[in-house]
Amino acid sequence: MTIVPGARVRIVGLQREEFNGHEGVAAKLVAVGEAKERRWKVKCDGLQPIALKACNVEVIAPPRAASVVGGVGSGGTSGEGSGSGGSGCNCGGAGSGGTGGSEGGAAGGGG
After folding, report:
1. How would you class 60 by CB atoms within 10 Å of its CB: exposed for 0-12, middle for 13-18, buried for 19 or more?
2. For residue 109, with 0-12 CB atoms within 10 Å meaning exposed, 13-18 middle and 19 or more buried, which class applies?
3. How far apart are alpha carbons 40 and 53 in whole angstroms?
C-alpha cells in the first residue's frame, strides 16, 4: 500500500532498533535538513513524532474516514521528530535526523 496521511504504519529497518516495530499514524510528508530530504512525519503510539524515510515506514492499514477528518492536526505543539538515524534500505544514505523545531498539532493529539 502507498503511504498517505492518516494511514496506520509500522516502523521498520532502522539501525536504532528500539524504534523498529512501533506503530503509529503517518501525519504528513515533510522536508528535513539542509538537503530538504523528504520524510514522513509519523506519530507513534507512546513516542514523540518522528521523521522517517519512506522505506522505513510500512503501511499496515489505510486511513479510516474518522482519522482523516478529525485525527490529523487536532491541536497542540509537538517536536518535529528525531530522525531515522540511518537504515540499511536503498532509499539513500544514513539519515540526517529531524529538524528539532515545533509545529502545532501536525500529528494530531497534541496539547
Report:
1. exposed
2. middle
3. 6
pLDDT at residue 62 is higher than 90: yes
**Cell 529531524 -> residue:** 98
Per the rule left: phi > 0, alpha: psi between -120 and 50, beta: everything else, 36 is left
CA–CA gap between residue 39 and residue 15 (Å, rounded): 16
List the one residue out of 56, 44, 43 whose CA is nearest residue 15.
Answer: 56
Whether pTM exceeds 0.90: no
Residue 95 near residue 61, CB atoms below 8 Å:
no
